[in-house]
Amino acid sequence: MSVVTLLSDFGTANGYVGAMKGVIKSMAPDAELIDITHDITPFSISYAAYTILNYYNHFPKGTIHVCVVDPGVGSSRKGLILQSEQAFYIGPDNGLFDLLMLEESLLRLYEINDLAESSSTFHGRDVFAPVAGLIATGTDPSKLGKAIPLKKPKPFQFRKVGSILYIPKLITDHFGNIIFAIKRNELSRKTIRAIYYKGYKFDRINNFYAQEKAGGLLCLWNSLNFLEVAQNQGSAAEYFSACAEDEIEIHLDEK
Amino acid sequence: MSVVTLLSDFGTANGYVGAMKGVIKSMAPDAELIDITHDITPFSISYAAYTILNYYNHFPKGTIHVCVVDPGVGSSRKGLILQSEQAFYIGPDNGLFDLLMLEESLLRLYEINDLAESSSTFHGRDVFAPVAGLIATGTDPSKLGKAIPLKKPKPFQFRKVGSILYIPKLITDHFGNIIFAIKRNELSRKTIRAIYYKGYKFDRINNFYAQEKAGGLLCLWNSLNFLEVAQNQGSAAEYFSACAEDEIEIHLDEK
Amino acid sequence: MSVVTLLSDFGTANGYVGAMKGVIKSMAPDAELIDITHDITPFSISYAAYTILNYYNHFPKGTIHVCVVDPGVGSSRKGLILQSEQAFYIGPDNGLFDLLMLEESLLRLYEINDLAESSSTFHGRDVFAPVAGLIATGTDPSKLGKAIPLKKPKPFQFRKVGSILYIPKLITDHFGNIIFAIKRNELSRKTIRAIYYKGYKFDRINNFYAQEKAGGLLCLWNSLNFLEVAQNQGSAAEYFSACAEDEIEIHLDEK
Questions:
Q1: From the CB of residue C237, how many other CB atoms can be counted at a distance below 10 Å?
Q2: Taking the CB of the first residue and of the last residue of chain C, which one, N or C, has fewer CB atoms within 10 A?
């Protein structure tokens, strides 16, 4: 029995996700469908790419992860199957899997073959769900696509000016926590002197939200070890009017 | 093992859907529950009716579809069981299944018997979930309701003035795509000269969203073959301030 | 095969719930995961406590209910396992189970042992999901925590002035229905003379919403037998600008 997880930006009200579930259940009656989310901000590939990091490595071996945030549907963008020791990942080739590829050891990568009868507007139902159904029932991905060379996406970029790192904002989550594109291990040998975000100075890196009183501002390494700015029981994104271009400043001690 | 799908306008936060799931699992432990959506706009029967079209025909034979958008709960409106070759549909008799009945070949239609102990406000839990649980465990619908004549709802209405069709808006979806009450096959023998929506002229019918650049306006036959106005990577509903009374004009070539 | 239900205020878009599901499926492959909701208003323990009442008693015997609304994560607040004849409940010790404990007969209560490797910010994934996975595979809760005395939370409080009861607002639901902290049986021997909410007088207690015309205001005993103010096919919360401090007045006939 295969586990098939589903992530999309479709919302659920229109029934598009229902259609994908029906296609998979019809092809693979024993597959167990697990919703991750359908509430990705519409068209937000970067939000989805970060979300995938939160769950991909917790599922049983052989899990099939279908991920569809697909503003280029119908164009010449290809569909992908990523195969690792642990899992399969199925979705469009538009950067959705870039963060995953920085962390997960891929074995093989396939470009999905064109399917004659697919609609131009709904590859979730007509391409990605059928591919998931076939893999769930044992079809080898090499039958469904052309193997292409593994590509390593470029790691997170940030500016360094003197002893200050300027780290771009990655995403804002559901609670209004603001997450930046740097992980704890990148600074493991550095001493941090101070952290500034929009003029606000964080005196320390907290361990958990409730270390500050309700409404208190804090920064911490979150459960994925990314740097995060939060407001205990509030929305840091609202407090700071966070926007896409924001950077956080990490002042290092360069002795 | 039966598949039981669930659609409602309950949201999930209140636990009403949880109660329905518990009732079904208690009666039919082997039933597999699949969420379609609980985010139908509250009380919007027409939105739900369109949503059903998106998924009903993709599920395995014998699937039980529970659909509850029920502003008249507790009144004299009846509950229905629709039986087709493929599936069972369970829900209130308030127009929720009208679009489905235009497309799906029904075999039988039943009015659900009154249940003595049901609450007046929550038939999802007290009527429709138990009926689904009983059908999932093999009870024949004829034991649960009275067979009534199949009724064919009236097809989509539109005005025709000279060579112009005025098509009413059906719904707006999660992405802000605006969907109109006409299907591709109704115009298959016609030549379309132009399409106007709120003064905006569409020069062609696109095949997919990404044929226009981001922000570009377009119309296309969507994945259900309804006419749809969209903005690539944006919300056409916001752009046009779409409202319920809107019509789209299709100018035909009447040579 | 165990049923494991999930309630949280995480939303789904960030993948936190996905991580919990992966952890449980990895530990208990046969467990069946059922979403209750992840749309609890962030940090709203009282909303979640009420929601639990709606579904807890409808699931099959042995169901494991995981409930995580946890603003104090990482602090010294403990995790709990509640065991009844019917079910297990797992979540933080912060009042989330207070309404449940007024209704459900508990057999045993455990404080979850500290887990060495858990993160400070995500006990849903690192504590509550693993505990659920272990119970689902047969581990006795006494192996996972220390038995502590059962505590009975204090029942609903209200003021009584002469023959008038002032009942505090409990929550507002998804439809904008306003629910108050009193149950029908508490007034079973009383005669109600009138009910006032923010100056509006309800002439009777309705049986169902559609007894009033669309837009009509009403009050009724809801499907959990709590007193509820509603607007048929509308939002009473919007109509009345409901806020947390609101009370409803029940005027009794004290003959």
A1: 21
A2: C
